[in-house]
Design brief:
Layout: E1 6-10, H1 15-26, E2 30-35, E3 45-48, H2 57-61, E4 66-69, H3 79-91, E5 96-100, H4 113-122, E6 125-131, H5 143-151, E7 153-156, E8 162-163, H6 168-180, E9 188-191, E10 197-198, H7 199-210, E11 215-218, H8 221-228, H9 234-248, H10 258-263, H11 270-277
Parallel strand pairs: 1-2, 1-4, 2-3, 4-5, 5-6, 6-9, 7-11
Antiparallel strand pairs: 8-10
């Protein structure tokens, strides 16, 4: 590991940001925990940061030499706000950047794919994390987790397509490696769990762990888009519905050895995460 200076973690209260911050702090690294209300994380310096307010960039970047980047959620063109920030970061002494992207989005692809494509030209030391869909979507605050708790149902347009769901703790472990190892990966890293599961499989596992019946209801892409559009912009809802169609077509039916290779241990299974994060009832 390098003798790191200070790492700015953007989205430090989020699913991967909070875990990455905790791991960095636990390993003795200095961390600035950034969020729109300043992220209060034990052991880290809280700093306010808003992608849409460039006035927050300077304080967040002051004294930092590396940054963990979580894009603004729901923005179909995050490069418009992220690239000016990254240019400013390079100019103030940041030399390593680790970007959270998605297994579904290659370099130059939609949304954060444009930032992925630009990153190697901005920093000599970099990495792009491309995790599969989070296991925490079914245990935390995601729409799936709410529908499981409220109605005992998972609603998707993914059909019987299989996904290499990945634990957010494993994503954070790889993020810390990419931020602090002597040599940055300087590549993109596709992160998955140890196996692929359909949403029917997920429903079965959640049922077994919680003791409450959960089913997977198959929707059309249009039905899913309309349901999502009740709470998020319609264009973004359409993108998410299209990603489910891609899953149905087999786009996420893969596993990789990235977590084991970079952390020295195997990725956690969905059963293990469900047992850790869901409470058995009845």
């Amino acid at each position: 590991m390098t003798a790191a200076g200070t790492t700015l973690v953007i989205g430090a209260n989020g699913t991967t940001g909070s875990r990455t911050t905790a791991r960095l702090v636990g390993a003795g690294h200095r961390v600035k925990a950034a969020g729109r209300r300043a992220a209060r994380v034990p052991g880290a310096e809280a700093v306010r940061f808003d992608w849409y307010d460039p006035g927050t960039f300077g304080e967040a970047l002051a004294g930092t030499d590396r940054v963990y980047l979580v894009p603004p959620p729901g923005d179909l063109d995050p490069a418009a706000v992220m690239l000016p920030f990254l240019r400013q970061a390079r100019g103030t002494g940041v030399h390593r950047a680790v970007l959270l992207s998605s297994s579904a989005v290659p370099a130059g692809g939609p949304a954060v794919g444009a930032v992925h494509r630009a990153l190697p030209g901005l920093f000599d030391a970099w990495a792009v994390l491309r995790p599969s869909w989070f296991m925490q979507n079914f245990t935390g605050t995601h729409l799936h987790a709410h529908s499981i708790r409220d109605d005992g149902v998972i609603l998707t347009a993914a059909g019987t397509g299989r996904v290499g769901f990945v634990d957010a703790d494993d994503i954070a472990a790889v993020a810390v490696h990419a931020l602090t190892d002597d040599r940055a990966p300087c590549t993109d890293l596709v992160l998955t769990g140890p196996e692929t599961l359909s949403h029917d499989d997920v429903a079965t596992i959640v049922t077994e762990v919680t003791g409450r019946p959960v089913t997977h209801r198959h929707l059309s892409a249009e039905q899913l888009r309309d349901r999502l559009a009740a709470t998020i912009p319609r264009d973004f809802a359409a993108l998410l519905a299209d990603l489910d169609l891609a899953i149905a077509g087999g786009a996420e039916d893969r596993t990789t050895d990235t977590v084991r290779r970079l952390t020295g241990r195997p990725p956690r299974s969905f059963l293990a995460v469900a047992e850790r994060e869901l409470t058995r009832s009845g």
